[in-house]
Amino acid sequence: MRIPQKSKERSFKKLLASYTGKRGALIPLLQKTQELFGYLPEKPLRRIADHLGLSPAQVYGVATFYGQFRLTPVGRNLITVCHGTACHVAGAERISEAIERALGIETGGTTTDRRFTLCSVACLGCCSLSPVMMINKTVYGKLTPAGTPAILKKYQ
């Protein structure tokens, strides 16, 4: 379900107001803004800077430093493939390649219909299930290149 833009704007105003005068508000405010918009658009970033009395460069610096933040829109389904040591040894590269072939995108890309975005991370913390991917908040482990496309079909 997509939230109308005007509703997002009202929610964002309320969000800003809820962080008035709070120390250490930047990261939680960025997190909640990203939850609302799906990424961190430029205009809200500037408004956050103004609201917190920071420069846009300071806010942008934090938003680009942490891997959890995105500055471009992502697909409805965010696929994150772990490439940590255990997953790497268990074949994470082959899992990423299978997903890239199935969706017709490269790691870091989003399908043209904005249904999927494919990302790579250093660790998902599920080493005993390697190789692992997460789609949105659901973890899939003990993956094989042949079985991975069937998991993707559940989200189409």
Please provide a written account of the structure:
The protein is an alpha+beta fold. 46% of the residues lie in helices and 12% in strands. The chain has helices spanning 5-18, 26-37, 42-52, 56-65, 85-90, 92-103, 148-153, and strands at residues 77-82, 116-121, 133-135, 138-140. Helix 2 packs antiparallel against helix 3. The longest helix has 14 residues, at 5-18.
Q: What's the CATH first level of the largest domain?
A: Alpha Beta
Backbone shape: elongated
Strand order of the largest sheet: 2-1-3-4
In whole angstroms, the N-to-C terminal distance is: 15 Å
What is the C-alpha radius of gyration, as a whole number of Å? 18 Å
CATH superfamily of the largest domain: Glutaredoxin
As for the number of domains, it is 2
> How many β-strands, per DSSP?
4
Percent range of helical residues: 40-55%
CATH topology of the largest domain: Glutaredoxin
Order of helices and strands: HHHHEHHEEEH
Strand content: 5-15%
Which key terms come to mind for this protein?
156 residues; alpha+beta; Arc Repressor Mutant, subunit A; Glutaredoxin; 2 domains; four-stranded mixed sheet; 46% helix
